[in-house]
Every structure is written in structure tokens, then in C-alpha cells.
Amino acid sequence: MQNKGLIKFFAILFALVSIYQLSFTFVSNKVASDAKTLSGGNSEKEIKYLDSIGKETVFNLGFTNFTYNEVKDKQINKGLDLEGGINVILQISVKDILKGLSNNSKNPVFNKSLADATANQKGNQTYIDAFFDAFEANSNGTVKLASPDIFANRSLQGDGGVDFQMTDAQVKKVIKRKVDESVESAFGVLRKRIDKFGVTQPNIQKLGESGRILVELPGAKDVDRIKKLLQSTAQLEFWETYKVDEIGTFLMAANEALKKTETNKVAVKATPKDSISALLTDGKDSAASKKGNNPLLDKIIAQGGGPVLGLFSPKDTAVVSGYLKRADIRILLSGDQRYAKFVWGKPTTITDAKAKNKEIDAVELYALKGNRDNIPAMGGGVVTDAKDTFDQSGKPAVSMQMNNQGAKSWEELTGRAYTQKSNIAIVLDNIVYSAPGVSSGPISGGRSEISGTFDVTETKDLANVLRAGKLPAAADIVQSEVVGPSLGQEAITYGTTSAIVGLLLVSLWMLVYYGKAGWYANIALAVNLLFLFGILASLGAVLTLPGIAGIVLTMGTAVDANIIIYERAKEELRSGKTLGESVIASYSWKGAMRSIVDANVTHILIGTVLFVFGSGPIKGFATTLLIGIITSLFTSIFIARIFIDKNIAGKNDLSFVTNFSKNFFTNFHYDFLKVKKWTYLFSSIVVIVSIISLFTNGLDQGVDFVGGRTFQVRFEKPIEPETVKAELAKAFEGSAEVKIFGNNNQLKITTKYKVQDHGTKADEDVNKLLYANLKQHFSASMTYDKFVNAYEGKQLGVVMASKVGPTVAEDIKTNAYWAVLGAMLIVFLYLFISFRKWQYGLGAIAAVAHDVIFVLGIYSLCYKFMPFGMEIDQHFIAAILTVIGYSMNDTVIVFDRVREFLDGKTKGNFGEIVNKSINSTMSRTINTSLTMIGVLLIMFIFGGESIRGFIFAMLVGIVVGTYSSLFIATPVLVDTISASDKELIEKQHLES
């Protein structure tokens, strides 16, 4: 090997750099472990301690030192499935942004296009492109985007804006830029909120141009709180309010009107004798106050007063809101009241005197003084600072400071409220947080306070969102995943176990099969792992459970290049060459290098497709796979070679065999093409049965593909899934699928209930329904918070929850189709270019298509009775692509040998040469397949329930891929080569 010294230098340099990069991970883990010990398991204390030492030196190398924050930034981060925490994808409402840019245009073409874009948006299509398509179809050239009542409005005029003379194409560029700016603004606001939230190593990133933002909060535990923090638009407004005696006449009239259209089917308690009752009855009993006879007023559960019209049960708020929005009811409002805006307050609890002082939930109703333009008396954009504090009564509150303009407006507003003895409602995201009166004259200086029924955590979050600013549009959670820390720790244990056992298995097999040469391959494998982890650390990569699977899989493929080289060296030795000559020949381009390059290029192409189309953990799997391929090539070709050359220069006793393996495949002469009719028949039957099953039995599509919510729930004792399914089907309106997941005390619950409803309320409703229906299966100590939220040592309740919205599911499904088809097309083109004949590519594609259909068929036929999950999701697509890569790899090795024999002097017709090619590569095929199957079996057994279906797909695929490369790819190649080509081959290779 030339430049051996240079190779050694770079190998040592890479090793030192890798050790240096990994040292930060070791130090960071040590500090985090100490923090956990010092905090006694209290996560808040742990975070505070780590924050306090952020700027302290924790790693001193003598010539330089690093603070904890610097060390933390350089470590390998653990993904959500290993660390536990919350991962959400937020969809910034481009529809809302477009409405804002149009100044809430009333143009019918514009508004119909918005609705059509929402209904007809295709997978992987951005909303703005769907809107432009819909607008073009609806306007048909009659209305321009640059119309004054659409985008050529006053707010968009000026430099870089929209001119009414612009074409639609020009306007599209401006609008796309404005939308991107709004998403960028939302990204900045969310980053500020998250930075102040108090979790270690938060991650936030924009996802292309989709308007989606990924937020990962490792270690975060309070699910509902975080979702509120992320989705709050922080639209702060100050409104003047009506008092109950001002609006009471309308409520009375509305109640009377509703009697004609509404029928109360259930008798309700009599309306409390508050100010509204007084207006209705003048203190006397009447038909209006009888039970069940007042559609609106009977829903009041406690009296109001001042700006509070009354208190209602949360379950009635939707119905009451519907009443107050009806045109036939709003027409009863007179004068300026016709612009009144009815808004609910922050949920609270009250004491129900008629139910033995039981605490019940209640929501206050307010009437805000609206106007023709629906603009508040004062906007929240004037707030420059906010902080959590305590009011005069010692209750948690939020104080705000306004700018000069805001201070002036605030003084005028409070002055008017003082004079009129009215109240000012402080409204955040359309919810009234408080509605104080002004008792001491106009308030100057621009300082105000929000008080109400808060706890300290709520005031901290409220101050946080106000400081960070408002989002330019609604942010809906379209995909989320919550993983408890105990589940993350289990994943680490499973992943570590499978990695160690897999490493030992591969290493042992190499020793048993190749002896001393196996030792050299194992040293190369160890160096490969060092390089792999070093590169992951230097890239700041996030390690996930599929990522660990990728690393374990890399161990199986890492020795593949060594196996190809060693098998070639054995052939050269058997042909009579010396050890030195055999090694040189095996490392040459005509020896093993061409096959290694072709096989790994196809693997890299597949990995690249997986990286491009994958997301989250799958991207992590692709990352480790790609890095592993590159490091494996370097270590297998160069590191092992250093030791082999040293042996040649010294003892010269390498034979690449042991007593156990020395006679394996030495006289292997099987006629693979002779049985092709039977293999064609067998494969045809399998393919036909698989396709029939796919059409009749279908597949168990996971929420990744169809949308929905998934909960992994652990119980105190074994439980029947059918029992739970029956209980949840009623609550979730028939949409409930329940399966045992791993142990029989753990269930996987899937539902589509409210998956299209955005906002924190829908998520809370589903969580509360789940708890209400399952709490009977737990002890009395299982509260809602314990059931839903994560905490250290959690073993019962929801240990994992995920949600995938329909639009995201459609995108994932579209990506999956393109990934599989794209991978097959790319590899076909590569093989066509490399082998100069399309028949090679066709043979490989036929084998791959056979493998994919085979695996899909197995999943379709078996998913209903297998004891582990066999869902078709992103993990499954990653497995399919890995199978494609391996199948190509195996086929290319055979095809390279066919090409080599055709270029040489091997005797025989084309079929005989192909048979010899297969037989001569059998040792490599079996060896690589066995190491891969062994590693996958280890992961299947020890890798944990969450990736068992993923590993099973690869396991089946590797077995089928080995079969297809031998019995499908090569026969197809032989059968499609033209008669003229075969005739030419026979002239060159048949003995005269």
C-alpha cells in the first residue's frame, strides 16, 4: 500500500479529533449526572443548578478550558425517544397571514380561493401555492391579485410592496416574501419564548418553506402548559366593557327569541336571582324563570355583576356562543350595542352552594364595546416589558410597561373609564383575563397589571409570551410527540444492550471465520465506531433510537468490505499466488475495489434519499447510516490493510481461514439458473398473494400516514384491550383502536377523535376524556396530572403520546411514495451508467420490486395476529429503503463478478458464466447475510418494542433480498440479454 505513512498520520489525527469531540459528551454527562444527584430527582432544581453553572469552567485541558454551556453545545445530544420530552411541529397559519396582508378583504374570489386552498391542498404542496392555484382557477383572469380590494391596499403599498399595475406573477413574489417574513417573525417569537421556558438544549428549526416550525424540548414534562405556551398568539388587547345592567335587556330579549327555536330537553336548575333575574321578573315569579323554560338564562350557574354577565359551565360555552352569534339574535341589539363582542373569561372554579359546597368549573361571560371595524380601544403592541409579580392582595399577577404612545393612550382610556365608572377588559388571545374598574383617576406612566385566578407558573408563562411578542398568525400543533423520561431510559438500555451484543456477535463471527485476519477487521470496526461517534459529535447530531439501530446496522455492513477483500484474497491464494501478491490483487480495482465501490455507491444513494425524504428520528437513522458507510470504507480498506501489510512483512502467516471455515464454499457448484422456472413460479405466487392481500386485507397504516392520536398507556396490572376499546369507543365517537404493546399491562391506543381540531383545548379535551374513561383501572392516587404529564420515575399512565394532523400525514405519505420510487429510479440509472447495459438495472429493479412487494405482503397478511406492532409508518419506509439498499448491494456484487468474468477469459456460455459468478461470490453473500441477520435478530430481541416492527421489516427484507439477488436478479439479467449479445459472448468465451 502506497503512502502508508500518510494513512497512519491521518488515522491517528482522526482518532485524536474524535476522542477530543467525544470528551465533551463525557464531561457534559458527568455534570448532568451530578446535577441529578444533587437535586434529588427534582427536575426544577436540576435545571436551576445547571443554569447557575452555565458560565463556570467544567473542562480544563491545560492549554484551554470550557464552561458548562460550551461543553453542552459540543456534546452528542439525545433525541426525544432517548431523553424524554416534547416534540411538536407548529403550522403557522398562512391563511391568516394572507388575510392580514389583504386587510381582511371581503372580495368573494379571494375568500373562496382561501377556502378552496384549505380543502384541496395536496400532499407536500404549500398552502400559498394551493391558494395561488385556486385563485387562478376561480378568477379565470377576471380579478387580479393586485386589485385594490385584495393586495394593492394601503398597507402593502410603497417600496417592495404591491402596485395595482403589477401582474399576478409579480404579486406572487411579493406575497411569498411577505409570508416568509411573517414565518421568520413567528420563528423569532417562539425562540424567545422557548429560551425563557427553562429546558436544557431546546431545539427549534424551520422546516423548508412549508410554514412549519419544529420545536423539541428534551426533558420537558408539563404537556398542557407547553402546548399553551407555544400556541398562544399573545394577541393582547384592551377593550371597554358593558355592564350587566346595560346588556341585560338584550339577554332577556334573546332568551325570549330562543324559546321559539330552542327546546330544552333536560330540566335545568332555576336561574340564580341576580341582576338578570331581577330584570326578567321584577322580583316576582313568572313563567320566564321556571325550570327548563329559558334556553339562554337557565344555563347561568352563578350570578355575575359589574362587567360579568353571568357564569356558565364550560360545557355550555359553545352552545351559548352559538346563540349569541346568530343573526336573528344579534339583530335584537340596539344602537352601538349592535357591535358588541361577547367573549369568555379565563376558566375558574366556584363553590356550588346547592351541592354541599362542591367546587365546580365556571367561565365568566363579558360583553365588550365593539365598533364597526372590530378594533379594540387599545392594542397590545405598545407593551415593551412584562414580568410576573404579586398584586396588593399577594396574589400572582403580571405587570406591564408601555411605550410613550401606549402610556398616553392608557391614560386616556383609564380616564374615560374613571369618569364613566366603567371597566377595561384585558383580553389575551380572545380570552378576558381581568376586567378591572378605575377608582383613582387616570393612570399615567404606562404601567398596568393583569390580575386574576393565576398560579405562579401561569404568570411566569404569561409574562414570557408578552415579552417575546405576539405571533403574526395562529400557530397550530399539527404533529406532536410526548415521551416520558422512564420510556427514554428504557430506550437507552435497549439500544445499548443491542449495540453491545451486536458488536460482540459480529466480532466473534469474524474471528471464527477469518482467524487472525478477523482480528484486523475487528480493530478496523472499533476504529470505525470511534470515527462514527466523533463525526456525530462534531456535527452536533442528535442520537435517536433509530439512530442507534443505524449504528448497530453499520456494524453488520462495516465488515462487508473486509469480507469482500478477504474472500478475493482467498481466491487468489487458491490460484497459486503468494500472500503478498494475493493481498495486492484483492485490494486492486479489478480485484475487490470495483465491487466495493459499486455496492457502497448504491447504498449511499439510498441513504441520501432516506435523509432527504425522512424527518425526525428517520433523518437520524439516515445520518448514522451515511456516516457509517463512509467511515466503514475508510477503516476496512486502510486500517485493516496496515495490519495485513505488517503481517506480510513479518510472520507472513495469514491464510484468511480457520480450521472451521477453510473448506467452506471451496467446491461450491450449484446451477442457480437451472431452477429459475421454479423460483419464478414461487416468487410469482408470493407476489400475486401479496397483491391480493394488499387489496383485500390492506395494511395497518399508522397515524403517520392517516393522521390521528396515539397513546402508549401503562396500567398497574394486565388488562384486556377489548374492554378498554369498548369504553373508549363511546367517548371518542367510535374512533378507538386498542392493542397490547409489549407487556400485557401496556396498551397502544389510537384515535382520530378531534385530530382536525387545532388549539390546546382540543388536546386537553382528548386527554381528559382518556383519563376519565381509564382512571377506573388505576388506584385512587392516579390524578389527571400524574396520568398525562411526565415526571422522573413515571411508570404508569401515559408514557408516550403523539399526534399527526391530516395535512402532515398526507405530506408524509407523499414523501414515502417518492422516496421508494426515487430510490429505485436512481439506482437503476446508476447501474445503467456503470454497467453500460439496461438489463443489469432491470434485473436489480426486478429483485428490489419483488422484495418490497414481499415485505408488504408479509405485513398485510400478518399484522392482525403478530404479537408486536406492524404499522406502516415512517420507520417502516426507512426499513424498506434499507432493504432496497442491501438488496442492491448484494446484487451488484454478483453483477460485478459477471462483468469481470465477461471481461476475462472465463469459459462458457452466458448462463454458465453467470452461474460461476454466483458460485464464486457465495461465501461473501452468505457471510454478509448471516452477520446482518444476526445483528438484526439481536436488535429485534433486545431493541425494545418501539422499533420491533421496524427491525422485523429489515429482517424479512434481508432474507428475501439475499434470495432475490441469487434467484431473481441474475435470471432476469440472463433472460433479457439479447440473442446477439449472447452470441457474441459465446464466440469470445467458448472453447474452440
UniProtKB/TrEMBL annotation:
Its main location: membrane. GO terms for biological process: intracellular protein transmembrane transport; protein targeting; protein transport by the Sec complex. Residues 376-473 form the SecDF P1 head subdomain domain. The chain crosses the membrane at residues 491-512, 519-542, 548-566, 596-615, 621-644, 678-696, 816-833, 840-861, 876-895, 926-944, 950-974. Keywords: Cell membrane, Membrane, Protein transport, Translocation, Transmembrane, Transmembrane helix, Transport. GO terms for cellular component: plasma membrane. Residues 475-642, 797-976 form the Protein export membrane protein SecD/SecF C-terminal domain. Part of the Sec protein translocase complex. Interacts with the SecYEG preprotein conducting channel. SecDF uses the proton motive force (PMF) to complete protein translocation after the ATP-dependent function of SecA. Belongs to the SecD/SecF family. SecD subfamily. This is Multifunctional fusion protein. It comes from Flavobacterium restrictum.
